[in-house]
Design brief:
8-stranded mixed β-sheet; single chain; mainly beta
Length: about 350
């Protein structure tokens, strides 16, 4: 019998979701009965993590963490074990971050051990050690990505841009928070989920707010921008959207971008090319079947260049949909709030 463990990559951020892949093989001539690694009734395999977070070594198994029971089950039930024929292998996946924490950054090592029963008695196997690095997140930009009007207490999404140039290339993550005690307002970080690699010039994120429960549609959209760079947009599950997406890279974006149930994204921007000027409000529709770069859905000349702006989508129940934009305009020694409804 043999066992091996593997991770999806060699480096992870603290609190990042880490997928652990376990492979149990039977290279011998007879069948063996092995514990199913994905069944939380099992006290095997036993995993050992060493490193700065666990300098003395930390041994654990799935049953211990999931059921808070460190002792093996009193008997075997259907599904707890799998019969491996000669030459066969069993592969499983486990959320390592949910099983053990890595609060201290640095190099860590993971080893798995397993005992199984074969025709010749008890057989044992230990995996080759796997090393990985845990790093502190270096957050450069973040924005909430909410389901406006339908936002639940879990998951609460925050789009994050991490990385410190030139040591680390920028990367997009989604921080998943949950409100564990709504009566007390207690909110905890559940995990950091890697999303995509933006362009190297990215310095800020562009989150999309929806007026529906996006998990029901199994889609999501998230973007990024850099100094004098075009809008980058990534689609789940399809992948990155080819650019350029906007006709002018100098345009100021009005946050947030707006995600429709169809998957289309509305982006509001200010200024841009010399023709429109710095006091023109423009709206673009992406992923609605139209050409790229997107053509203006509408534009409006404002009495002055805005000092701030914010966009919002109409509720999904409103016929025709549309969005509203609140802009702040300087007016002598005062500020003028202007509501633009589309």
């Amino acid at each position: 019998m043999e066992i091996a463990v593997a991770l999806s990559k060699p480096r992870f951020l603290n609190r990042e979701a880490i997928e652990l892949r376990v492979r149990i093989g039977n290279p011998g001539p007879t069948a063996i009965d092995v514990p199913n690694p994905e069944d939380n009734r099992n006290a095997q395999p036993v995993y050992t993590v060493t490193g700065p977070s666990h300098p003395m070594g930390h041994r654990f198994h799935f049953r211990q963490v999931a059921r808070h029971d460190p002792f093996p089950a009193g008997g075997s039930e259907p599904g707890m074990t799998v019969v491996l024929a000669p030459g066969a292998a069993l592969e499983a996946e486990l959320p390592l971050q949910a099983l053990v924490g890595f609060p201290v950054p640095g190099v860590h090592t993971l080893v798995a051990a397993l005992e199984a029963v074969g025709d010749e008695g008890v057989v044992r196997a230990v995996s080759p050690p796997v090393q990985f690095v845990v790093e502190r997140p270096a957050i450069q930009s973040m924005e909430l990505a909410l389901d406006d009007g339908l936002q639940a207490s879990s998951p609460i999404r925050v789009l994050c841009l991490t990385g410190e140039a030139p040591a680390r290339a920028p990367a997009l993550y989604q921080a998943i928070f949950r409100e564990e005690r709504p009566d007390l307002g207690e909110i905890a970080l559940a995990a950091l989920v890697p999303l995509a690699d933006p362009e190297p010039r990215a310095t800020s994120v562009v989150a999309a707010w929806s007026n529906h429960a996006r998990l029901d549609r199994l889609h999501d959209r998230f973007g990024w921008r850099g100094p004098r760079s075009d809008l980058g947009l990534h689609r789940l599950p399809e992948g990155p959207l080819p650019g350029p997406l906007l006709p002018d890279e100098t345009m100021r974006l009005v946050r947030p971008a707006l995600l429709a149930e169809s998957g289309a994204v509305t982006v509001v921007a200010i200024g841009g090319d010399a023709e429109s000027g710095a006091n023109t409000l423009r709206t673009f529709a992406l992923l609605d079947g139209g050409p790229l770069p997107a053509a203006d859905r509408w534009r409006l000349a404002l009495p002055a260049a805005p000092t701030g702006a914010r966009a919002a989508a109409a509720p999904a129940t409103v016929a025709g949909g549309g969005c509203a934009v609140v802009v702040v305009l300087p007016q002598d020694d005062r500020s003028l709030l202007m509501l633009v409804e589309a």
